[in-house]
Design a protein that fits this description.
The complex is a heterodimer. Chain A is of the alpha/beta class. Helix content of chain A is about 35%, strand content about 25%. In chain A, strands 1, 2, 5, 6, 7, 8, 20 and 21 form an eight-stranded mixed β-sheet that branches. A five-stranded parallel β-sheet of chain A has the order 10-17-11-12-13. A five-stranded antiparallel β-sheet of chain A has the order 24-25-28-27-26. The chains are: A alpha/beta, B alpha+beta.
């Protein structure tokens, strides 16, 4: 993989050393390590012993229980009930357990999988060199170490059956089950198998479902068979397989997911001769987030990843012709392809609003909650499904991994009595090929006025800039491919790009998003480890006379 | 005047050289309230309490051995013995015993991998460039 600037690599090094430092200062390692050494030689025996002990415990527990009171598969009561098994729910479970000794947390999740993180599904997993990556679901992290997409292995969790009985409590996951009804007055929910569970505190972290577009739905079953709506582990597995079997994949959508998947698949385009098309109505990739000039520049970079990017493309119809898909655009262009990935956003899962009598926000969607993420007395909402009040930036709903972590964590704190408002701004990040890596915070909406401050490009900064700006390599490649597959794509779509003016290259910099002259959002473009400064500026919410002076705080010329 | 400036509709674009940005920034930031109750303060709160929800603990406090960890760690933190923590051996032993039951959560690392301490526990939510890292910087 190229020298892509994964922000977090740098951040994490800092973080880890800090974390270890804190530990070391507290000097707890001292006793820890000594004790560890003492029984180093007994490790094997201890492990065997522990395993046996756990088994015995489990057996004896259930045995003694079946004699007295049968222990039901699903507890009828959960002190902490988390609806949804994604990142927000897991973060909340962590937070609840950290603050409430012995807390008993039940996660009810539709997904058959234990809680896992989604970003690697459209990022690192695609760049794994392991042929079995769809099975292992392991990827290389910032520090070069491998890890799994699962937050924790199965042994971290206790069985729902044991939730109310084990000493010191724990986190149990009831997977493959859906909460279909919520009675707020009685503090109970009903599952899709008819079972009822009462709760003391409840978190709704139902996330969202990927949207489809009506023109694809109208294409019928044959089109649907060749369609991926990407969200889960199973979607990664299936798309990975498809991408090895078909000749052409078309991604509809120019946002984070669409652009990341396009770049990931584009890599295969180069190595395996897969044709990758990305189409969206905006002028450039990330067009709703990045200012137009930067969005166009990014599109150029995505093309260099082997993607045939078609901006200004509005799909009119999709049909099956022969054994292929035919996509017709409003402007008359036609594209033939084998498979479609629709990455056109998320619909928050708010089915429970009706039975629970909870308010759904009419502008942003999602359950409306206050600044403490609370919907009702014992009910909080976090993650994609929460439309919350941000004291600094106003009402929002955010669909990003870090927001799931931050809001899940906050909800967990408030479910254990913290009474804290949304205060710590979440961030997000994306990488599109080796030249584009960015982190952002706050409201980054391309409809806002922006001020971008970029390091003036030097030959050293952009060794490849000359060839890149001409774009000839990739352009001829795309045209060849189009010919080969008899695509009727007008070459004009490629010329909509505005190249930066001579000598200007958006290699790295900082972009401020303004509302009423106040900075409400910041994108850190190919510069890393600056998020604390960005967060501080958003938090201050002050009007700055000269944003170029503010930009100086970011040391954009430094590594 | 910086190296170059232009407009693209509502968007301003400024190109600056290293020299342009060498002078100190005149931008003023609001002084932080050291006792901001909503801000994360790292492992030790301003009142001296332990912040068990600190991401820096990497989930140690919330995992299956969280109780044992908390008891050992707070014993150590509040220990007034001459050799700090020397009165906490029982608690640390209990923690170790618990951890041995979860070899895949608390790997029994070899000597040359000491840095991997509590890796599995600490890595989960922290994988992304997300939570916590800069909180520790400000703590």
């Amino acid at each position: 993989m190229a020298t892509s600037s994964y922000a977090w690599r740098h951040n994490k090094t800092l973080y880890t050393s800090l974390a270890l430092g804190v530990f070391a200062v507290a000097n707890a390692f001292y006793a820890f390590v000594i004790l560890k050494r003492a029984r180093q030689r007994d490790v094997d025996r201890a492990e065997r012993h522990a395993r046996m002990e756990r088994q015995m415990n489990a057996n004896s527990h259930s045995a003694s229980q079946t004699e007295a009171v049968p222990r039901p598969e699903v507890p009828s009561h959960a002190p902490f009930l988390l609806i949804g098994g994604g990142t927000a729910a897991f973060a909340a479970a962590r937070s609840i357990r950290a603050r409430d000794p012995g807390a008993r947390v039940l996660i009810v999740s539709e997904d058959p999988e234990l809680p896992y993180m989604r970003p690697p599904l459209s990022k690192e997993l695609w760049f794994s060199e392991d042929a079995d990556v769809t099975e292992t679901l392991r990827f290389k992290q910032w520090n070069g170490k491998e890890r799994s997409v699962y937050f924790q292995p199965p042994s971290f969790y206790i069985s729902p059956r044991d939730l109310l009985f084990v000493e010191n409590g724990g986190v149990a996951v009831l997977s493959g089950r859906k909460v279909i009804h919520m009675d707020v007055r009685d503090n109970t929910v009903k599952l899709d198998n008819g079972l009822q569970i009462s709760y003391d505190k409840c978190l709704i972290a139902t996330g969202g479902s990927p949207r489809n577009i009506p023109v694809i739905e109208r294409g019928g079953q044959e089109v649907e068979k060749r369609l991926t709506l990407f969200r889960k582990i199973e979607d990664f597995r299936s798309l990975e397989k498809i991408s090895r079997e078909v000749k052409s994949v078309t991604i509809i959508g120019g946002g984070f997911l669409g652009s990341e998947l396009a770049c990931a698949l584009g890599r295969r385009a180069q190595s395996r001769g897969l044709e990758v098309i990305q189409m969206f109505p905006e002028n450039g990739n990330m067009g709703r987030v990045l200012p137009e000039y930067l969005s166009n520049w990014t599109t150029n970079k995505v093309r260099q990843e082997g993607v045939n990017v078609m901006p200004n493309a509005v799909v009119k119809s999709v049909s099956v012709v022969g054994n292929r898909l035919l996509i017709q655009l409003k402007d008359g262009r036609k594209v033939e392809t084998d498979h479609i990935v629709a990455a056109v956003g998320l619909e928050p899962n708010v089915d429970l609003a009706k039975s629970a009598g909870l308010e759904v926000d009419s502008d942003f969607g999602g359950f409306r909650v206050n600044a403490e993420l609370q919907a009702r007395s014992n009910i909080w909402v976090a993650g994609d499904a929460a439309c919350f009040y941000d004291i600094k930036l106003g009402r929002r709903r955010v669909e990003h991994h870090d927001h799931a972590v931050v809001s899940g964590r906050l909800a967990g704190e408030n479910m254990t009595g913290a009474a804290k408002p949304y205060w710590h701004q979440s961030m997000f990040w994306s990488d599109l090929g080796p030249d584009v890596g960015y982190e952002a915070i706050g409201l980054v909406d391309s409809s806002l006025p922006t001020v971008g401050v970029f390091a003036k490009g030097t030959a050293k900064d952009t060794p490849k800039s000359a060839t890149e700006e001409s774009g000839t390599g990739i352009r001829s490649e795309s045209e060849t491919e189009m010919e080969a597959s008899e695509l009727k794509v007008s070459a004009a779509s490629l010329s909509t790009l505005q190249a930066p003016q001579q000598g200007e290259d958006y290699g790295k910099g900082v972009i401020f998003y303004l509302r009423d002259k106040v900075v409400v959002g910041i994108v850190l473009w190919n510069i890393f480890n600056r998020m604390p400064i960005a967060r501080k500026i958003i938090k201050d919410g002050e009007e700055h006379a000269d944003l170029n002076e503010v930009a100086k705080l970011f040391n954009i010329h430094e590594e | 005047m910086p190296g170059g400036e232009r407009r693209s509709g509502k968007d301003r674009i400024i190109f600056v050289t290293k020299e342009d940005h060498e002078t100190p920034s005149s931008a003023e930031l609001v002084a932080d309230d050291p006792n901001d109750p909503y801000e994360d303060h790292g492992l030790i709160l301003p009142n001296g309490d332990i912040n068990w929800n600190c991401p820096c603990l990497g989930g140690m406090a919330s995992g299956p051995c969280g109780e044992q960890f908390k008891s050992a760690f707070s014993c150590f933190h509040y220990s007034k013995e001459e050799i700090k923590g020397s009165d906490c051996v029982d608690q640390f032993r209990a923690m170790q015993e618990c951890m041995q039951k979860y070899p895949d959560l608390y790997p029994q690392e070899d000597d040359d991998e000491d840095e991997d301490e509590e890796d599995n526990q600490s890595k989960d939510l922290e994988t992304s460039p997300s939570i916590g890292k800069e909180k520790d910087g400000s703590s």
